[in-house]
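Budget justification note: compute hours in this period were largely spent on complex prediction jobs such as the one shown. Inputs:
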Amino acid sequence: MDATPRTTPRKSATFDDYSLSEIRRAAASGIYDIRGGGAKRKVPHFDDLLFLGASMSRYPLEGYREKCATDVWLGTRFAEKPIHLKIPITIAGMSFGSLSAQAKESLGRGASQVGTSTTTGDGGMTEEERQNSTILVYQLLPSRYGMNPDDLRRADAIEIVIGQGAKPGGGGMLLGQKISDRVAEMRTLPKGIDQRSACRHPDWTGPDDLEIKIQELREITDWQKPIYIKVGASRPYYDTALAIKSGADVVVLDGMQGGTAATQEVFIEHVGLPILGAIRPAVQALQDLGMHRKVQLIVSGGIRNGADAAKALALGADAVSIGTAALVAIGDNDPVLEEDYQKLGTTAGAYDDWHEGQDPAGINTQNPELSARLDPLLGAAGWPIIFPS
Amino acid sequence: MTLEAQTIARACGKSHVHNLEPEDLVALTVEAAAMAKVPLAGTDWVPGSKSHE
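Corresponding output:
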């Protein structure tokens, strides 16, 4: 009898199951993995912070009787018509093209109900979202898809997108599967062909040129609309300082947990900062230039609940933005769709192949049958959407 | 979400959510303390702060 004791089988912490499966996938396909969403790895986040409630040395306020205001003004630096939101939580930019028109309508309705803004995306402004959004922020992106002066004037604010947290320094690609007739028309490009979104803007190379571009935008809109600059978190101190220098009214800072429609997995997980590490340097830049609370700071990337929002505000932000959380609220990755997710080889909570356009929730798709599943008033899971009020 | 943020702000004695400040926070990990520039819970240590050099 061989009685030699044996060690238990041991898997590598470095070559873990995910890494092994990715090596096999890459070896078989020869191409990087593309997916939607933000960083999935664990990074330092707001859960690593705690509030010190009042006790002897501080005086708390009564929950149901004493007022605690939540409103925020955005764009008070230069805009003649700054935006006044009832809550410090806005809906982040997500494109029509990536999202269905129903999803855009749903987000606009939800934001309007609670007195906040929603944002267009890389693909222009749809009637659905303009009609259903009391306050709509219009994104000006490097691709210039759907960009025109009429929509600039129809917007309540303009957001110049330099980058996003999931991929600072990267552009994007909307695969042909999602380029329907309507998406193609809005982007003035052919149907069914992959569309690249550039990684940098063709109209300027740096903050000096951007300053001129911002002046143009102010002239087109008669100096009325607030102008935001959105950056992915990488060098937040300098990026914030340069955004202020360029003439921004508002700086939007997006951490690596912030989602994207479709990007290389390696980019999402290995480029950019977690939002926790980006807020203080940005606030420091605002303070060093005497602009804290004069140029407003909106932060995003992994905001899930009121505690995350409160922590971001305590660190010096004026407001937060939600993207993934808003999609989840309208039914993304909902367990009621588990059977459909299983058919796609995934599971509720893990589905991220949004670029393939087969989203059973009807959110990340241009397939009319799938998008018809999403009732803009009810969401994909079929219950009335009560937005994060 | 807003109601949650308000609940926390009131507990910290604030009449506007914008009155929350870094002094209301501590960190559970050294990494978070360094990134958020708030003290590690139960200490007055902010990693990287010059006052302790």
